[in-house]
């Protein structure tokens, strides 16, 4: 999953990679690839802004499968117990069979949207509400006794990993595009709340 574990420590026990000397293979989608990759059991999983999740043989780039959604797939996938979990800008959260890409379940959120704030990135006028042009990343899911993810509809969701059933949701004050971290039985999430200081 994103940064390796539920706490997002980013610490890995694998051996140090050798110096990269050449491109072994490349693969082109019909859109930009801005999600992180997940590698599991000899397969590379990643989303594309062409609206698809891809699974390629890691050694050769031969495509095992692709699965279409109705919006760009820019969040990082989570692969666990033979299932690929990810969100799409179409407002749905997906669980696919990691071996063949078949849909296991999907869950509908309110909808995705970009963070909107006054004077985003210092753009004038400072008090005009405007969508962030760089907010391209719906949050990556976290697995810890359930699937947890944030949404552009202002909610954090907790779902049953096997069925996609809603366990709970928590509403915040704005778009949640940070991947939630879980440590010590506590879920941590970040979002930006806009307050009028007049």
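^ Assign residues to that structure.
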């Amino acid at each position: 999953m994103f940064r390796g574990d539920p706490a997002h420590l980013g610490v890995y026990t694998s051996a140090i990679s050798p110096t990269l000397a050449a491109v072994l293979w490349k693969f082109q989608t019909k859109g930009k690839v801005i999600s992180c990759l997940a590698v599991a059991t000899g397969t590379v999983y990643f989303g594309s802004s062409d609206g698809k999740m891809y699974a390629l043989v890691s050694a050769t780039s031969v495509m095992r499968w692709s699965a279409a959604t109705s919006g760009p797939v820019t969040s990082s996938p989570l692969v666990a117990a033979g299932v690929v979990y990810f969100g799409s800008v179409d407002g749905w959260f997906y669980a696919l069979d990691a071996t063949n890409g078949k849909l296991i379940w999907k869950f509908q959120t309110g909808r995705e949207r970009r963070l909107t704030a006054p004077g985003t990135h210092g753009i004038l006028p400072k008090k005009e509400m405007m969508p962030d042009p760089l907010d391209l990343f719906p949050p990556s899911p976290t697995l810890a006794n359930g699937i947890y993810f944030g949404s552009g509809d202002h909610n954090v969701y907790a779902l049953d990993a096997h069925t996609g059933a809603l366990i709970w949701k928590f509403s915040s004050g704005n778009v949640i595009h940070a991947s939630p971290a879980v440590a010590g039985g506590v879920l941590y999430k970040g979002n930006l709340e806009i307050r009028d200081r007049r």
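The chain has no helices and 16 strands.
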